[in-house]
Amino acid sequence: MRALVVEGVGARPAVTDVELPAPGPGEVRVRVRAAGVCHSDLSMTNGTLTPGYPLVLGHEAAGLVTEVGADVRRVGVGDHVVLNWAPPCRGCWPCRHDEPWLCAEAGAPSVPRGRTAGGGPLHVTLGLGALAEEVVVGERAVIAVPAGLPFESAALLGCAVLTGVGAVTRTAAVAPGESVLVLGLGGVGLATVIAAASAGAGRVVAADLAGAKRELALAAGATDFLVADDTLTRRVRTLTGDAGSTTPSNASAGPPRSAPPGGPPGVAAR
């Protein structure tokens, strides 16, 4: 099968042939139908993050279960699934109390799995390696979704959407009527805008260096769009009645400066 592989820090990712093992007990094979590119993929090629190499990139994807190993009970062949790069154990206290992100077993390193075309060991990003035709992962690393949900939409649930929505509903716990500032309008930022609007925020101010993102921001539910520059803090305070945004959510590389005293700056992704 083919996968997008980076051989080391600074190397150019390339599509190459690789080999994955058959699913073992508790594992499934998924035919990837749609996958997204995350900033983390760049970080794994430029040395910001240094997993093992050669490395299959990607951790945001959806697909179709094509094979299951022994003792797999939660999904079956033909199921539509989203890949989960932080699979919880589902049995510990946080998992049983609807707080799986606190599970000590959640998450997966970039582990060896499979072989390169030359027979050498192959690593897969966050236990997935989703920028590939197929993945073989543990049953805990897949989440069944309705068959009517387009794969292209389902794939975004694997990282960008859950990060943005989690920032609003979990980290910041935005309440109806509050003001929200979203800095940076990539995939995570736009998901944050959608979630803030859905949570009933009274004002959702979206800011980005690129003025061309205005229409995207407004379509996602922003009440205001600002091009980010040195006057941003002043303009945000003007829009929100000099109080600053109740909840700034930072999906950019810079620090937020628009929170009111004591306000909760939320970092969705950096």
UniProtKB/TrEMBL annotation:
Residues 239-270 are annotated as: Disordered. Gene3D superfamilies: Medium-chain alcohol dehydrogenases, catalytic domain, NAD(P)-binding Rossmann-like Domain. SMART domains: PKS_ER. Keywords: Metal-binding, Oxidoreductase, Zinc. Its cofactor is Zn(2+). GO terms for molecular function: oxidoreductase activity; zinc ion binding. The keyword Translocase does not apply. SUPFAM superfamilies: GroES-like, NAD(P)-binding Rossmann-fold domains. Residues 10-262 form the Enoyl reductase (ER) domain. The keyword Zinc applies. Belongs to the zinc-containing alcohol dehydrogenase family. This is Enoyl reductase (ER) domain-containing protein. It comes from Polymorphospora rubra.
